Amino acid sequence: MTAAMALGLGAALLSCVHPRIELGPDPDLEKKTVVRRSLIPGAGNGTFALVKIQKGEVIGEYGGVLLVEKDVPKNTAYLVRLPACAQVEGQRYHWLDGKGSRAHVTRVNFAPSRINGYETKLQNAQIAAVCRRPFIVFTASRDIQPGEEILTSYGTSYDYDPFMKLKNVQRYFCKRLDIDCSKKFTYVP
């Protein structure tokens, strides 16, 4: 192999490597929220509004490390699939791992949209994927008052069952809605 061939092979290999890129949150958006212990039993931390957030307003950006399919860690609840159009510096990324991110919205918890057929009206945020940085944003689906915990649905492919089968979680949501769930508990994300 000649030096020129080796150099060409090395350049080709480098073009296939996806550099580690970490997306940080927008500091101005972070001023709208704070992370503290969630009101939902067993949920750990949650994201709370510090100011009134209007319906349709961007709450925050989902930060984290951009990943390709082969680099996706096993068993992490902080992975968000990127839209097919998500590219950085000509490279296609598939996922955003927010586990170590400082972005407050990476700690937004789930609330069901319906329990036992009743609309909960607990979700106050929605997730939107966009083709350019920051790729994932949370927007208010209704007005959010200061001090209110921000809650959303993670979509239909997320496995909610391990958490939603916990009796203390079921009791919490049923109490919030003032409904009897002692005989039956069904939910819709």
Q: Roughly how much helix do the residues carry, as a percent range?
A: 10-25%
Overall mean pLDDT: 89
The side-by-side strand order for the widest beta sheet comes to: 1-5-9-6
Radius of gyration: 20 Å
User: How many H/I helical runs?
Assistant: 4
The main pleated sheet reads as: 4 strands, antiparallel
Please trace the helix and strand order, writing H or E for each element: HEHEEEEEEEEEEEEEEHHE
Portion of residues in beta strands equals 25-35%
How far the N terminus sits from the C terminus, by CA atoms, comes to 58 Å
Q: Low-confidence parts lasting 5 or more residues at pLDDT below 50?
A: 1-15
**What is the tally of beta strands?**
16
- Structural class label: alpha+beta
Overall, the morphology is globular
Describe the protein in words.
- There is one protein chain.
- The protein is α+β, with helices and mostly antiparallel strands.
- It contains four helices and 16 strands.
- The protein has helices at residues 3-16, 27-30, 161-164, 167-177, and strands at residues 22-23, 33-37, 45-49, 58-61, 64-67, 79-81, 87-88, 91-92, 95-97, 109-110, 114-115, 118-119, 125-129, 136-140, 151-152, 187-188.
- The protein starts with a helix and ends with a strand.
- The model is unreliable at 1-15 (pLDDT under 50).
